[in-house]
Structures are given as structure tokens and as C-alpha cells.
Protein 1
Amino acid sequence: MDFENWWLLAFPSFFLLGWLAAKIDVKQLINESKNIPSTYIEGLNFLLNEERDKAIDVLVKLSVNEPDSVELQFAVGSLFRSNGEIQRALAVHQGLLDRPDLTNAQRNRAVLAVGEDFFKSGMYDRAEDFLKRVGTGKYKAVALRLLIDLYVNQNEWHRAVDVANQLQLASGQSYASEVAHFMVEISSQHHCDGDDAKAIDWLRKSLNVDPQAPRPRIALGQVLKSQGRYLEAIHELTQLELESSSFIGLVSDALIECHDKLGTKNQCLDKFKKLIDLSSSHDLLVKTFEMSMELEGQVTACDLARKFLKTTTDVGWAIPILESIKNDIAEASTADVDLLIEMAKQYRQEEAYICDSCGFLAHAHYWRCPACRQWDTYTLTSSAKGVPA
Ligand SMILES: [Zn+2]
């Protein structure tokens, strides 16, 4: 038989072998599924139907019958915790810690679980103690993440920075934007204590960590302004137009004040007019209009308002303008224009910021959502405005 004919016989043989292998796997699978107690399936069903109380009852009964099953104990503990029954979760997890037969990984997992239980119950000292004890391995990064949250909750910003740096090393991921926020918090504490030199030092460190971050730049401008260093403040705040122009609206008042002190308000107006062409925010439009009214007079300011109406995509801004100026802006009286400004301000107060993460509505800009505690979730849009909280 030549080579080609051998292969003609070999192909059906391979097919047969594959079919047999598949038969064996299926048979094994059926055997294994028969070995799974029906109570497991019952518990799983309750979980899938989000009936946690019933699932807990089933798993607790199972764990009594199978006290050696470590995984089952972890499952019961997790369910207690997610059900808000922290004391029962703690009892299960601490029971696991007392067992001498755990592997290193299981022991780390149990230490982490106890730390998390204490964290959830608000017993931060005990939580910190356990979370610090989690050894290297796959649970280390989770423990460090929880430790950061713990320190943030307690405003212990120096420790938060240290642990975030450890987490960066352990996970290989960058936490630069969070570290930058923590450093701004440290700076803010020094500023409150009257130590502006240290406050500025920490803001510069923050910018070194995350050069694109708007918050340290804004805070630096505010501290410099408070020291009367208006030119330097203007320099820092106008950096935002290069790095994160949408935040300029948040510092428009500070910029106007600095220019006012230096007698260069006209420069500020020119700058704002250029910025509006690049990225207009509601606040910037209002401020520019008000400055134009003050420095250039009503006719020029009304021309500017007409331009806004033609160019802005911010319908919210357009509606009060349109309502107040009605048909011909050139003939609008001072009272009409005052009304226009008032309506724009009113609109500003009614508008809310929405958290990208949880949808929480706020009337001021927050760097950290008060509801879900996530950083940088209030993304500024063209209608963004107000002073950061
Ligand atoms: Zn949120």
C-alpha cells in the first residue's frame, strides 16, 4: 500500500478515536453531575434567583454536613457578608483561620476575608490589622486596595499615598490619578493649617505624579492667588487650557480676580473670547458676557451674545437668552440684559452635575462622588459650571 492509501485508512481511525474520547468525557461528566448533592443545586438556584436568605440556609446545612470543605465555608461567609450579616460572616471566617489544615493561599484568603468583614462593620483598626497581614500572592492586591479605601475613609492621606505606591508595584497598574488626588488632600490640610509653602510643595508633587491632572493645577492657582501671587496664579490656571480646557470654567472667577488685581481685565476678556471658540462652557459664556458688558458696553456685549447663540451647542444656554432678548438683541434695554444675565444665572443654579459612575445628581462639582465615592466621575461638559467642592 502506498503512502496516500495509508492516509485514507488513518483518517477514519482518528475520527473514531476522537469520538471515543468524547464519549468518555461525556460519561465522566454525567457521573460527576450525579455526585453533586441536590442541595448544592438547590442553593445555586436560590442564588440565581437572588433569594440570598434561602441560599444561606441551604449552604449552612451543607457546611454542617461537610465541615472539612474550606470552599463551602468561604462561600457561606461571603453570602453572610453580602447579606449584611457581618457578625455571622466574621464567625465563619475566623473559624477558618483557626483551622490548622489551610494552605498558605487559603490562609491569606481567610485573613483578607476577616479584614474585609471588619472593614464593612466600620471597625477600621481591626480591619487595618488584618489587611496588613495578607501575605504576597493573589490576595495581596485586593488587601492593598481595601487598605487604600480604609485610609481614604479616615482622611489618612499620607498612608493612602504609601499603600497606593505599594499597590502600583504589586499590580503593575498605574494609580497616578488617585495618588494625585491624595496629595492634593495633603496639600489642603497644610493650607488650612496656614503652611502654604508645604501646601504648594505637595501640589507640585501631585503634578509630578499626574501632570495632566486638573485638580492640583486648580488648587495651585488658588493658593498662589490667596498669597497675592496673581501672575503666577494666572500662569498655572491658564495651563488648564492646554491640558484640560473643559475645567477653565471652574476657575473663571479666580482668573478674573487675578487679572482685576493686576489691572489687566481686558487681557482676561480677550483670553476668554478665544477659549470660547475652542471649548465653551456655560460658566465661561456667562463670565465673558458679563465682562464684555462691563468693559465694552452693552452693544458689543449683545453682539457677543448673538455670536453665542449662533455657535453654542448648549441649548440650555440658548433658551434663556432667546427668551429674554426676544426679537432684536440690538434694541434690548439694560433691564432686558440684566434679566438675561439673571436668567442665565438661574439656569446655572438649576442645572446639576451627574456622576458618570452612579448617576448621583449634585449642584456643585465634586472631585469624588459623595454617593459612590469614586474619583473623577463628574466629567465636565460644555454646560459645566460652578466652583469645585
Ligand atoms: Zn457616583
Protein 2
Amino acid sequence: MDKVRDMAKNESFEKQTWKPGNVLSPLPVVLVSCGGVAGWKPNIITIAWTGSVCSDPPMLSISVRPERYSFGIIKNTGEFVVNVPFRRQARAVDWCGMVSGRDVDKWEGAALSQAPALKVQCPIIRECPIHIECQVRETLNLGSHVMFVSEVAAVQISSSLIDAKGRFRLEKAGLLAYGLGQYFELGAVIGRFGFSVQKRKHKSRR
Ligand SMILES: Cc1cc2nc3c(=O)[nH]c(=O)nc-3n(C[C@H](O)[C@H](O)[C@H](O)COP(=O)(O)O)c2cc1C
């Protein structure tokens, strides 16, 4: 920690005041699939306003503007799948957030394919490495967006991200992040949960 204090001495802490806004970054950016049930056609919407909100039961939220085509689908069917994309899928992620399922078939346009989910009736996006199937538990009208607070019903992870010991190697995924209107790629692992309080292992000297 002394090193951190020394570094801080040389830094300028001057700040500018901005008007309140959504500057919290980076955020995950995901492809949410929905529909394919009760007469609703399957659709995809790009979502950045998403996050984990509860550990037990596992829950996450997505916030959707009511004018989105996907909004009516999710509100009426009460389910969706969060598909976490690879970095290389950035173009499809952006495009699915630029056009509406009212006008185009995003599956066809983004060369993405549907596969059955385990616990919900809407399809997963097969080309994505991580699928989180969700059932809506609460709907909160917040203002511009409606938040769907949802319970995670099932999770699927690509076998390519699981090592021989059964560990989920997230760093292999080449994931995408989003902030202030820009896409970022995630970099190297720099520590594990609790590393700041763990004793350092000293190399044995022979
Ligand atoms: C990077 C990115 C993030 C987005 N995040 C959200 C979001 O969190 N909530 C939302 O309602 N729309 C969001 N959008 C906009 C929708 O994805 C977009 O309006 C889309 O065309 C809606 O599709 P639909 O009409 O087929 O539902 C985002 C778009 C992009 C490109």
C-alpha cells in the first residue's frame, strides 16, 4: 500500500463537474434473445443496462425502453435469455442495437442461429459462448426505462471456456465491454477475489 500512497503523491486530483448522467463504465454489453413463444416471433435486442442484482437466488436485471419491439415480447412472455458475446461479435452486437425486429429478421441479418434453451421457451443465440436464461420476477417503471428484475433459471457455458479441472476460464472468452458510447475489449486477469489480503508465496531459494 505504501507504493500506492507514493504514486498518489504525484497525481493531480483536479476534477471537472459534469451534469448527472450514465457515466458508470465499463458495462457488459449483451445480446438478449426473446420471443418464439405464444405467437411472438423470436427477436434479439442489444442491451447495456444490465447487471447482477442478487446472489441467492441468482438474479439479474435488464432495463428496456417501452418503445423497443422487444419490450412487448418480454413484458408479455416474462422471459428472455442474456447471451454474452465474444469480442469478435461486436459488429453483430452493434447492428442488433441499431435495427428493430419490427422491420428486420435480426437472426438472418446478423447470421445468428437459434437453439432451444433449457428452462425458458425463447431461443438462445447459439454462436455466443455464455447463455443466462431468465424469468421475470418484478417489473419496475423507472422513467425512460423499465427494469425487468429476473431470476436466473439456467446457465450454459461453452465447453471451450472450461478447462480440464472444470474451471470456468473467463479470460479465454475475449469478452466485450461498453462505456460512454464505445466498445472495449477486456484484457488480462490481474488478480483473484481476495488477493489483497492473501499472503504472498515466496519462491524457495536453493
Ligand atoms: C451498445 C448498445 C446498447 C444498448 N442498450 C440498450 C439498453 O440497455 N436498453 C434499451 O432499451 N435499448 C438499448 N439499446 C438500443 C436497442 O438495442 C435498439 O433500440 C434496438 O434496435 C431495439 O430492438 P427491437 O426494436 O428489435 O427490440 C442499445 C443499443 C446499443 C447499440
